[in-house]
Amino acid sequence: MKNFFLLTLVCYLACICAFQGSCKNNNYSFNEDVVTLQEGTYNIADLHLESYKNKRLVIRGVGNTILITNKGDGIILDALTATTLVLENLSFKNERYAITYTNPTFSKDSLIIKNCSFQGCEAGLYIKNAKFGINNLIIQNCVVTGKGTTRKLVSSQKGFFAFCPVQNALIKEDTVTDLQGVGGTLRAIHVGVIGCAFNKYEVSNNLIENITGGDPGEEQGIMVLGEGSAYIHHNLLKNIFHTIPGTNDVEGIYSKCLKTEIAFNVLEDVGDTEASICVKGAQESDSVNTYIHDNSINFSPDRDPARKTAGIRTVNTKNLEIKNNIINGAQDPNGAINIKSDLTDNKIENMIITENKITACLGIGIRISGAAYKNVSINKNIIYLSDTSPVKGSSYGIQFQILKSLQAIQPADFIITNNIIKTSRPKTVGIFIVQQNKNRSKRNVGSPNNTFINYDTFNFSENPKIYDNEITVPEKKLIVDPRLVKMSLKDIAQ
User: Fold this and answer.
1) 444-445 vs 477-479, strand pairing mode
2) Which run of H or of E encompasses 20?
3) Euclidean distance between CA atoms 243 and 245, whole angstroms
4) Cβ(245)–Cβ(213) under 8 Å?
5) Across the chain, which distance is largest between two alpha carbons, in Å?
6) Rounded to an integer, what distance in angstroms lies between the CA atom of residue 451 and that of residue 328?
């Protein structure tokens, strides 16, 4: 009888540990609570999650485990003692915010969400606070769909929205589809705030599709903010745009981080009045670095040209490399690749645009706007402008718009070589360099190595390095103001 009692006690304690304890490397720990939910539907309030007092709380579903709420919001992090929350194999339906941190007074250590689904919620995760958030965020193999909601939406739906300080984030292998917009921001994935130092984000291998909204509001597929680094790669984004063409900014991938790498993503019919890929935010630090490479961007031929969408746009023009991207059917009159400086003195410094292929472009191929240039190179790009375009006026394969601050540029800092530019579109200039100046003095002369070049009131210290470009366009011009270009007409008109 004594042995039977001991056996019964051991079994009872084992059951308690399995429900409320933890298992790390198969050893139970009293620093963790584990709640295992068998297949079924549970009201979140009935789980009394606030009663668990350990620093780590794991909620794990077995089979088809559905969590619902009668109060609007689902799991509220404010009410939990745990500073680390792990959610696995759970389904949330029709909550306002399935997981939220409504009024944080400190940052939680970790939030880990794996193999969970969210249907008809206004957001799978919603945190909005400038001071406190999540130190470590992992969201993996989760599914969010906006369809199937049975509640009246108060604002536009979001997938995973962590508009708060986040030190480390890994968001991978997730699916976000069919979000509905009713005004405000419609966003699939958002991580970070401006001023969040030393952050490290990775957003990879996600599917984001059918993110469309109406006025007023804007849409983004992926947005990352912070003063650290972001690596966004191998994502598939499809059909992200505004309901009314050309009325609001829409981006597929948007970064405002100190260091950004955007690579190996596929974007199909993504963006509106902005770009499929957009990097913004002036940073004066020499640590700024942006690398956009090996992305495929496609706009369907029947897409409304009023959307005026670029393939790649950036106003963070220091230490920038754009390489080996494919952009087909870009609609922005200001460039399939559109670079603008908003740094001190409108400087564009350490910029390489190389080995990109631009096809069926309705506007300008590559456009750069700035005043001061240092170490700028555009080479080995293929630019095929569409033969017809809704854009009125002249078109350009490559355009430099030089702002009002006129200053000499060294030849080594301004190189345009080995590009291919082709079109039969009327009024097309292959390479066009223009300075914003109301009083322009122009003189037409011949061109040594390029079919189509235009220098317009621009102060080169000596012959700029523009050579070996293969340009096929309807006309041939070289426009030079001899007072500003320090070379003789004899030298350049061979």
Assistant:
1) antiparallel
2) helix 2-20
3) 6
4) no
5) 113
6) 24
Question: Model confidence over 332-371: pLDDT tens digits?
Answer: 888 999 998 866 567 788 999 999 999 999 999 999 988 7
pTM: 0.86
C-beta separation of 452 from 421 below 8 A: yes
Provide the residue type at 273 as one letter: T
- Give the list of residues 6+ apart from residue 410 with CB closer than 8 angstroms, or none: 461
Distances (CA, A) of 263 to 168, 208, 296: 19, 16, 9
Question: At a CB cut-off of 8 Å and minimum separation 6, what does 25 contact?
Answer: none
Phi, psi of 23 (to 5 degrees): -135, 110
Q: Which two tokens stand for residue 75?
A: 């799991």
Residue type (1 letter), 83:
T
**CA distances, 340 to each of 120, 331, 368 (Å):** 39, 17, 6
| Whether residue 216 has a cis bond before it, omega within 30° of 0 | yes
Measured distance CA(398)–CA(432) in Å, rounded: 6
Compute φ and ψ for 296, nearest 5 degrees.
-120, 120
What is the DSSP code (8-state) at residue 47?
G
Please count the CA atoms within 13 angstroms of the CA of 412 that sit on its side-chain side. Answer: 0
